[in-house]
TrEMBL record:
Transmembrane parts of this sequence: 44-63, 70-93, 99-121, 128-150, 156-179, 200-224, 236-256, 263-284, 290-310, 331-354, 360-378
Primary location group: membrane
UniProt cross-references to InterPro entries, sorted A to Z: MFS, MFS_dom, MFS_Efflux_Transporters, MFS_trans_sf
Subcellular location: Cell membrane
Name recorded for this polypeptide: MFS transporter
Cited Pfam families: MFS_1 (PF07690)
Species this protein is from: Actinocorallia aurantiaca
Domain Major facilitator superfamily (MFS) profile: 4-383
Keywords, alphabetical: Cell membrane, Membrane, Transmembrane, Transmembrane helix
Amino acid sequence: MPLALLALAVGAFGIGTTEFVIMGVLPQVAGDFGVSIPTAGRLVTGYALGVVFGAPLLTVAGTRTSRKKMLMLLMGLFIAGNALSAAAPGFGVMMTGRVVASLAHGAFFGIGSVVAAALVAPRKKASAISLMFTGLTVANIVGVPGGTYIGQVFGWRATFALVAALGVVALLGVARLVPDTGRPPASQSVRTEFAAFKNAQVWLAMAMTVLGYGGVFAAITYISPMMTEVAGYSEAAVTWLLVLFGIGMFLGNLLGGKFADRALMPLLFASLGALSLTLLVFTATAHDKVFAAITLTLIGALGFATVPPLQKRVLDQASAAPTLASAANIGAFNLGNALAAWLGGLVIAGGLGYTSPNPVGALLSGAALLLALLAARLDKRTRAARTPAASAAARVPAAR
């Protein structure tokens, strides 16, 4: 494994911790600022929307900058945002800090995916991408539970101060280990990058990302009150439940990376279908401690089994200009987060209970499965149209 992949994983670890740790300390943040749980859930939505807009904007802004330098600048922005969150005197400033930190998220993963894929042979691209995202999944095994525990013992501000420190470590790792390949090729101009979006399959892949990954966040955004108020766990037990979710993410990500290089679309069909069913079942299993823990682990595994294949599909469909499309797909993951957190807050605020976001998530993931089937059908139609044309060309005698 190239050491540069380790550096990218370190950055992913820091970003993953700040993205997900808010779920573990959501009740503390809400109580400190005197807002409701659904209102505090807007911190998830705000972060996600920051990723959606920051991913393409910062990627375009860095088109003529070396990828290593851009990764370092993005980590600096990430550090500043988390430091602001830690010191926030009010909810509005806290939201600002979350948005500032989120602006770096999409561009870091987007540029990092391109760098990771370029470091290995073509047949190992999905595996390389999954290794970078391993930092994100390990964050959910170590960083998020650890941050939740620190937040419960020392206060949530200490959690975000620790996340800022993680950003410093990630910045040093990128500076030390990621090779400086200079500026991107001149052929990869802003216009060229935007041209990738003329391909309908790129849009379909990103729509699958929004809906499929959004299904996971519909349930996970409100996992802390769901597990304490419905399943009957203590507040301290949420830390260990997040560990289980993180372990599921870790295993799902590795398996997704391995099988996406062999059978990308079949993997998407299986994982999205199983994810939709598991989210629906979670509405019932959330009332039992043991089954709730098992289901939560499965949701993590199935949700992250979709990440490497979805990211690789976007890179494949936008192969001529992958950087912006890759970053935009990271934004799509977070657009799904924002949509799911908002919808989940709506059904909870409507009095439907803390398990009500689960069927919402099931519908979102089921819709992603339908889009995957549509994309595969379009692929088949395109191949069928090309085959007769190629055969006809082969029958034309060569000019003498």
